[in-house]
Amino acid sequence: MDAYIYLSATPEALIASMLSPEEFGAYLSMGTKKRNRGQAIFFEVDPQQISGLIDGDYIRKRCTAKPDGRPKSSVYLSVYRVLEAIPVSALRSLYLTTDNGYTLELRQAPYGADREQKERLHLYQELLPVTPLVASGLGPPAFLKKLTDGSIPIVLPKLFFVDLKMGELAANPLRGSAEHLPYSNIGHLRDCLEILKTEDQKQMKTVRRYFSGSLLYRTIGLGFFVGSGDNLVFYPYPNMKELESIHYDFFRSI
Amino acid sequence: MLAIWCVLVIAFFGLAYAMLLRRQVMACDKGSAKMQEVWNGIRSGADAYLKRQLRTIIPLILVFTVVLFFSVYVVPPTAESRLRFEGYSDQSLKLIIGAGRAVAFIMGSVFSLMVGQFGMRMAVQANVRVASASGRSFTEALKIAYRAGTVTGMLTDGLGLLGGTLIFIIFGVASPDTLLGFGFGGTLLALFMRVGGGIYTKAADVGADLVGKVEAGLPEDDERNAAVVADLVGDNVGDCAGMAADIFESYEVTIVSTLILGVVLFTQTHELSWIIFPLLVRGIGVLSSIIGTYLVRGGRQGKNHNALKSINKGFYSSAAISVFSFGLISYFYLNDWRSFFSVVAGILLAIVLDEITKRFTDGRFRPVKDIARSSRTGSATLILKGLSYGFEVTVWQTLVIAITIFLSILIYHGQPVVYVLYGVAMTGIGMLTLTGNNVAMDAFGPIADNANGIGELSHLDKDARKIMDSLDATGNTTKAITKGVAIGSAVIAAVALFGSFITDVSKVQIQMGIEQSAQLIETGIRISVPVVFIGLLIGGTIPFLFSSLTINAVTRAASQIVEEVRRQFRIPGIIERKVKPDYQRAVDICTVSAQRELVPLALISVLSPIIIGSLLGVEALGGFLAGVILSGQLLAVFMADAGGAWDNAKKTIEDGLYGGKGSEAHHAAVVGDTVGDPLKDTAGPALNPMIKVINLVSLLAAPVIMTFRKPGHLSAGLVITGVICLVLVIGAIAYSKRSSETKPVREI
User: Fold this and answer.
1) E strand or H helix at B280, and its extent?
2) What's the whole-model pTM score?
């Protein structure tokens, strides 16, 4: 099969395409006649590992070049509870595309606990299957486990989320400088963080109920996480210096 | 006279240096076929603009040449002209002075055109070579960009000095009669190039950004944006041709006003040094600029990536050489330090104005940080903050200029007012001593910007684009710095011209036999006289009218560009990069729009002083001039600096503050920048030549008005002239204010 299979997070969908990840990112973010616009976040999926989930004949039939020779951009295969159905092991690289079409590939890497700083709070933007912005005292593995292992009434089959930068607020919610943080309603964020600091039982606090707009790529902290229970896959995000020196086009457009 | 001949040789030397640099730049490699393909688009767009501009301007030059030639038949030549051409009959004298004034006007116009057009062509030739060189080394790219800018700088220096010196060699003490023609020619052309350039560049920029960046989310200089080439051409048209012509006319006008005042002092003291010293200062400026600009390099093996440091090194070297040389001349030639102090005050003024501009518009300082911070609460607060700082910086800049003029009063303490006015004019000479460096720094901006655009459009590799990004950022800073100098020097030049107005009017009053106590030099401009106050009020409104019309013109042209780019986005294949947009359409829209606005705006500048002088008299015309200078200066500084501060607030956010591109803060900052763009690049800069055109027309018209308008009597001829001019101005305003509704593109 010549088609690539992508799991899009914006919005959730499983898509077959003849386009390479970079081309697919540009297609998703800019469309063909500028009627659609916006950043794109998607995984490349190993088709072999999900062969039982998709109809190969349908893809072969639909995902073919157009009469003028142009490749088929997208064939939607599924748009509901997609992440839940895809095994984490089938996920390859994660791609981030800016709203003007530049794509950054993030590869999986082992997540070491040494990445976390003690006594610091976190801010997580959940991306799939639900999209609240959540402040938490838990590190990424613990946060994922908490929401997916069934130990609390709110349980998710899998979760895809990103760790966001919090600057000084991570350690000092009330007095830390929020000077350069782009989040709206900083006062509310401080209140949420302060509750986490002062109430021992409280481990998570919703800051905003749903994700609207786009993810500011400059605010990404450690990186992206996906998985369930103890099965965590980590996609580290380069720091700004690395982005500038290695991924210059992407850096310039964020 | 030996000194004067030396100055003439230096002027030619400056021009030869420009030609040498041009040859060096032209010998450089033009890069790949793809780069040249992009570059050809820019070059043909620039050519189209320049040709169309010539077609619009040449008829006006011819009309004014005729008017200036016959002006001596209305107002006879001055006593100094009779002295210089003693023995000639009255008719021959009129012919000589009339022809001299007409030829000087053509010379001023042609020189101004040459500076703008040659400079712009040089910039266009250089940008592809800089893009190509950036693939090899930073040093080479910097050297080509700066040397190409220096070609324009040295043309400005050389031609400005050549014109003034030639006129003085030929006409001697009679030169004020012809210098006005030279100054008027340069200033009028600068007005055309500034206004046309300003409208073009911002129509293209705002139009390209509104659809490309804001609506479609394309990056800067994206090949799919149909206005991208127009935007690149616009950088040359506005920042290279417009700015160079603007500085050239300030350079020219300061020498004109200094020589006019110098001749007055010469007739009183019989010391030729009042005339020679300013020319010598200019000559030294040319030499020190040659040395300073040649010192600009990027370090060994291209390792030094701090272009601004290299450029500043060249600038301060030139400044040091100049001051030292002025001291030597003052000591050995003048035996008088007063002019030296005036010139040094001018250099200091340029440095202080530059520093104030930097404090209020540079992202490292509090005002821009505050403006950026206010973006977190939306575009309204960001705009309010920018307005607040724009108003504040205007206060400081104006106070500094006032202090500098006060320094002239101190330097010439106890002397008649004409000495003080001469001191102010010498301050202007000092300010523009380093014009070669200043124009080089300014022209460097669009060259680096265009090179970056070519790099982007031809998909140059990452390292080359990093070099071009770095040069582009430096170019933005150098452009902002020279803008401050241009405005400051325009004000000083206008004040010096105001001084020339008073002395020239007084000369005619003497010829008319008006008693000394009633002469303008004795009475001054009395704003307590109601008609003078009316003149002052109306003068104060002219810059507002001019700004309103230029901003309206940008909005109108930008709307057309928006429609065109949107139309092209709908063409299948453009977004997928499979079909190339029709860049030429956007170039044509900008070219036509910019030229269409020139004539009405020029008419307003030329006719408004004639209306006031004809209907209210010469003293009211003086009040009118004061009003124009004051409100023009305040508005120009306000618009340039507020616009610059919004621009840099946006840049700091794009560099990562408050979430960077795409954040709410960035959206607010883009709104601020879009509002500020036509202020800082169209309306504000256009005020500089406008102020001086009005000053020079007043200088030329005042003797005519006085000849026909006896004190206390209205002349029917003047009233009719005034009314006709008024009708023309109303017509020009109506034309400029015509509907902003977008016309279908196919009509162009």
Assistant:
1) helix B273-294
2) 0.85
